[in-house]
Amino acid sequence: MKISQFVGSRVIKTGVAIFLTAWICELLNWPPVFAVITAIVTVEPTVSDSIKKGIIRFPASAIGSAFAVFFISVFGDSPITYTFAAVFTIAICFKLNLHAGLLVATLTSVAMVDVIHSNYLISFFIRLGTTTVGLLVSTAVNMFVLPPHYTKEISKSVQTTAKDTGILIKKIFFGILDKSTDENTNKQEMILKLDKKSDRTEKLVQFQKDESKFHPLVGSEQATFLGTEKQLAVLRMIQYHLDNVLNTQMLDISWSQDERNMILTAVNELAASLQNPTDYNENKHQIQLNLLMKQFWEDNGDITTNNEHHPTHFTPELIILYELVSISNLVTKFCHCMDE
């Protein structure tokens, strides 16, 4: 096992950033604590985030340092100095929308109170210097030491989400057609978990897009990333259709046992295709889709010719078939995403 897998790449990068920052400050004969604080909070998930937030944290730290110097010169080293330095720093940072720099600015402000006793102006510029060192070092470390790379994690997450979606498809439709005793609340919880997992994966996708500005993906890696991103979008749509089924009141289903078996076979095929996309069989899938479409139009014809139903009042059978056909088309798209 690699050390980066054991402790995490971000932990390693933070350690390297702290060491280099403290070492540079020692060479310059500057107190390293303020630079180290800045370095710790500036190691972000992506280089882009480090730069964006670093641009905000520098002026925020300057504000905190300025208030610390001012209130020390007025009140000296006293409780009111700590209070005013922190409160005014927070207020001004909020007013200027420097939220990303609020923490480091406030920490810098209160930490300076105990160490500044004279040469206030020089101390102010030294604090700006240490903040700059922390920002530059942590950004450089984030860029060159174990640079962020999320493609494998994204691909793995999409694969597990697809497998879980396949399981849920079987649970929902088998529960309806076999009159399973599984509660819908349990299935609804599964959809919510899939939604949360998709949210996390989409965040990783955004991280990777931001990172590509500095470490662009090339060749097959870029193609794989784009295909995986499309697959994630397809899974979102499948989850949407499953949620529609769960939120529709299903009364007694009037299909014969042969019709139920045909639909359950199609459900099994859809679930298997999501769980093992490499085993996806285009011809077999098309046959099942044609059977579903045939049943869909037969049931649709029954509605329009039956006086007991208004054409806009869809029966449970028609809803099930519509959602299954939609999911079937999405499964085809999911399995073809890597080929586009």
Any chance you could write out the topology, listing elements then pairs?
Elements: H1 3-7, H2 9-27, H3 33-42, H4 47-75, H5 79-95, H6 102-113, H7 120-144, H8 151-177, H9 184-211, H10 219-246, H11 257-275, H12 282-305, H13 316-336
List keywords for this structure.
mainly alpha, elongated, 78% helix, Methane Monooxygenase Hydroxylase, Chain G, domain 1, 13 helices, 340 residues, 2 domains, 0% strand
What does this structure look like?
It is a single chain. The chain is an all-alpha fold. It has 13 helices and no strands. The chain has helices at 3-7, 9-27, 33-42, 47-75, 79-95, 102-113, 120-144, 151-177, 184-211, 219-246, 257-275, 282-305, 316-336. The radius of gyration is 29 Å and the shape is elongated. Mean pLDDT is 84; it is low at 1-6.
Any idea what the CATH superfamily of the largest domain is called? Answer: Phosphate transport system protein phou homolog 2, domain 2
Q: Flag low-confidence runs.
A: 1-6
Q: Looking at CATH, which topology of the largest domain would you report?
A: Methane Monooxygenase Hydroxylase, Chain G, domain 1
Share in helix: over 70%
Separation, N- and C-terminal Cα atoms:
35 Å
Strand coverage percent: under 5%
Q: Biggest sheet, open or closed, and with what strands and sense? A: none
The number of distinct β-strands equals 0
What is the helix tally? 13
Order of helices and strands: HHHHHHHHHHHHH
Number of discrete domains: 2
